[in-house]
Amino acid sequence: MSESTDASSSGIPNAPLIAVAGPTGSGKSDLALRLAERFGGEIVNCDSVQVFKYFNIGTAKLTAPEWRGIPHHLIDVLEPDQVFTAGDFARKGRAVLHEITARRRLPVVAGGTGFYLRALVEGLAPGPARDAGLRERLAARETRRPGALHRLLGRFDAATAARLHPNDVPKTMRALEICLQSRQPATEVFAVGRDALTGYRVLKLGLFPNREKLVARLEARVERMFAEGLVAETEGILARGVLPSAKPFESIGYRQALQVVRGELSVKDAIFYSKRDTRQYAKRQMTWFRQEPGLEVVPGFGDQEEVVAKVLRRVEEFLAH
Asked: What CATH number corresponds to the domain at position 285?
């Protein structure tokens, strides 16, 4: 990482850092706001789509008035056609952490992109740079035969393939890219070591609501997003000249809204598939966060008063030490 990752340069060795994680719809933003209000914090977005401009409704992005005067970072910082990796997030995120700590404020990282959080705190193993030509060939292969990349990865690196969902094409493609360029399994490349964040003591809190209640919330939120104009927002983004191939359009909700705009789906069907995909995504997120090193499980939603009270006590205890 080119930016300083050591909080001690701000005169605060082992500075505190709070991370609020969990599946989509679990109330991370609400809880992060409460923590920032109580402990003099600033919020660092850890959602891979909220970093892009214009994608608002489908990401449940809070508006500036909803920030309640609390500074938010790494939201609306990129044009939709820009490439932004976990490594980019770690570099920019660590720079923001350093700035917040230098102001004697508490960084509160909040979001559901588990790989971004892990890159920020644990660091990423060194790996080969992205190869545009190779990635185009791999993408073409996946288009011709869906699932081909995951099967191919299984031959080169069975351990990594076993950890990745067959439909997670971006991560599968990156793992294959590493295997092919380094001529060794990605697991061996990752074993070299990671550039971990230093100078901070980190409290990771993971919201784990009741599954049935979470699904009910997620389905209601999908319906609300379409009712509030997700399709119209998608049309507006396209009218700005953003290509349908832009990365944010791959996210749940926008992918279906784009199909509505193209005449490939009815709104009713778009809502159905968005609900289905959101349920599956939330399940994958919960599986990921259960394996997150050092994460403390918090049962319930982040907007429940009993959950907030419990977390406030835990953070007070953490900061006191």
From this structure: 3.40.50.300
Sort strands 295-299 and 41-45 into parallel, antiparallel or unpaired: unpaired
* Torsion sign across C-alpha atoms 126, 131, 134, 137: positive
By the 8 A CB rule, do 248 and 56 touch?
Answer: no
Identify the helix (H) or strand (E) that includes residue 296. Answer: strand 295-299
- Return the pLDDT at 192: 66
> Domain boundary at 142, 170, 190, which?
190
Percent of residues, the chain, with pLDDT higher than 70: 95
Q: Are the C-beta atoms of 58 and 229 separated by less than 8 Å?
A: no
pLDDT surpasses 90 at 312: yes
Structure tokens at 133: 């030509």
Q: Quick one: 48 and 85 in the same domain?
A: yes
Centre a 10 Å sphere on the Cβ of residue 303 and count the other Cβ atoms it contains.
16
Determine, yes or no, domain membership for 74.
yes
Instruction: Check whether 251 has a pLDDT greater than 60.
Output: yes
- In terms of domains, do 118 and 267 share one? yes
The answer as to whether 216 is a domain residue is yes
What predicted TM-score, i.e. pTM, was given to this entire model? 0.82
What secondary structure letter does DSSP report for 229?
Answer: T
> Is 3 within a domain?
no
- Closest C-alpha among 4, 15, 32, 11 to residue 307: 32
